[in-house]
Specification:
With 148 residues, the chain is an all-alpha fold. It is 82% helix and 0% strand.
């Protein structure tokens, strides 16, 4: 993989991380349970740290890092807002939306890790994907244990 393709791949993952940060932040604002709000805020902070780490890699490889999310992420956040109004803003609905976002993030990381990557980049992406998987599993467990 040449540096330009690598920078594009990393910028896609930065956008994914920013989508996660914004999505978790919005969901934290809509959550009712204080413990859930705190959990979602921590997940948003994790996503922000992941994006910053990827931005550093983009600069290392001579690129200009993305600093915002994707158009699809913005649409998803818009849908979360509309769905909240219609669903009564339940914690179960908020968690279901978070899980949907984490499903998308996992798919993007899996796709990226199928590429031929420099060892330093692969190490970062594997570690970050482990974190995305842990977020997904935690959100799913919370959703499954929260009344609809």
């Amino acid at each position: 993989m040449n540096d330009r393709d690598l920078i594009d791949l990393l910028n896609d993952l930065i956008e994914t991380s920013k989508d996660g940060e914004y999505g978790f932040t919005k969901c934290a604002e809509r959550a009712n349970a204080p413990a859930l709000k705190e959990t979602l805020q921590r997940r948003a902070a994790d996503c922000a740290r992941g994006a910053a780490e990827l931005q550093t890699l983009v600069v290392q490889y001579g690129g200009k890092p993305e600093d915002s999310g994707t158009a699809m992420g913005a649409l998803h956040r818009g849908w979360v807002s509309v769905k909240d109004v219609l669903s009564g803003n339940s914690d179960h609905a908020v968690l279901a939306e978070c899980e949907r976002g984490e499903d998308a993030a996992l798919a993007r990381y899996r796709k990226a890790l199928r590429e031929e990557l420099p060892a330093d980049v692969r190490q970062v992406l594997e570690r970050q994907m482990t974190g995305v998987q842990a977020n997904h599993d935690q959100i799913k467990a919370l959703r499954d244990s929260t009344p609809a």
